[in-house]
Amino acid sequence: MPSTQVHDFAVPWSSSDAVLLQTSVSPFSVAGGNSLRLQAMAGSSGVTATHTPGAPTDLSDRDELRFWVYADHPADGSSRHPFRLELDYQDAADPPGVTHRWVVPVNRPRVWEQRRIGLDPAPRSDITRWRFRCLTDQPLQIFVADLLAVSEEPLLDVERALLDLLAGPIPLPGVTNVPAEPAADGADTVVVPLNPRFRPGNRITVDQTGPYAVTAATHTATTSLTVEPPLAGPIAAGAPVSVVAPVVVEEPPLAVGEVGELPDPVLLLALTDQREEPERGWNIPQRDSFRLRDGLTVCSVRPPARPVLLEYQLLVAASDREQSLTLRGGVLRRIGVDSGLRVNGTILPVQTLLPPPLDVRDRRVLSPVYLRIGTRIEQGARQELPWVQHGQVRSGPLSAPWDPADPGQRPVPRPEDQEGIVIRI
Length: 425
Prior knowledge:
425 residues, mainly beta, Jelly Rolls, STM4215-like, 6-stranded antiparallel β-sheet, 2 helices
C-alpha cells in the first residue's frame, strides 16, 4: 500500500481536560470523510488530545506523516502569532526521555493546508500513542483531517490511485443487481431470470463476491451462467448478480506470446508517456517538519520536487453499445479537472485530452479517453536547519564625508544610520 491511515477521525480523541479542550468529530473535511475538531479555551496550555490505537501502529516502512489543518488563526512561531499546537507520538521502544514532537504551522487562517513531517530514523514500528498538545493559553479552534503515513513512489502511487478510482463498479443497464436462484457452495452455475444481455466473457459479482468469469451462457426459460472459479460460498434466493468491467493494465510483453482473452466489457488502461514538466516547477527549497529544539525553531529543508507529467490512454471495450457508453460516462463522471486525483492525501491535477488524429489510430475503435496527470518526484533528502523567520537589510547616509585621497580614513556613521543585516531565528 502507498500509505497507511493513522486515524480516520470516526471517533474523537480523548481530552485530558474536557473543559479546557473539547474534542469532537466533524463532517467538515478537505475531501469527504471526517475531521477532528479541537476547541481550546483560554488557559489551555499543556492540555492534550490523545489517541491510543487498539494495536500498536507499525510505520517502519513509512518515512513521512501527512495531514490537513484548517485553523481560525495564523501560527508562524513569531511573538505575534506563536505556534499553538504540537503533534507527537510515542513508541514502545523509545528510551526514557526520547520524544517525537513537531509544531503545527498555519500560514493562512480558514484555508485547508497540508502539513508534512519527515519521520525520524528512530523506532516507529510499535507506536502506542498519538497526541496533540496545546502550546499557549490562547483560545484555539482547528480541524485536523486525513492523517496518513506515507512512503512515496510517485508513478506507482498514481497508477494505484487511478486503478482504485476506476475499479469501483459502474452500474450497467439491464445487468446490475439481477436476482439469482439459490446455489450451493462450490457450484459452477448461476441461474437468473431470462436475460440475453449476459454473455460469455462477462465478469460478474454474485452477492458482492467475485468477480467470476462467465465461460458459457444458456438462454432458455432462464439464463444459466457457467462461472470460473466455482462459487466461494452458498447463495440465497434473490442474491444480486451484476456484470462488472474490470480494469486491465496493458504493458508491452517482454516475450512474444498469445494474448489471453479479455473480459467483456473491460477498461484497458495504458501508460503512454511520462516526462518532466518544467512549467509547473519552481526553484524554491521546501520546508517542513517544524519543531522546537534547544530554544530554536528548526525545520527540514530539501530541494524542490521535480514536476512530472503522466499520460494514460483508457479504452472502453464492450460488445454492447449501451454498456460501452454507460462505462464512458461513468469514467468521465469520476475523474476530471474539477476533482483531480487523490494520491497519498494530495490532490493531483488531472485533465482529459483531445485524441490524436484519426490517421494515426484505428478507425474501428471508439476514441479512447486520454488522461493527463501531474505529479512530483522528490529530489534529495531532508536536512534539519534553524528556521529563519525574519531577515532585514537597512542602510542610511554616512555622517562623515569620504576622502578618496586618504585611504586610512573611515567614515563614522551615526548609530541610527548604521548599515547591517539582521537575521532572527
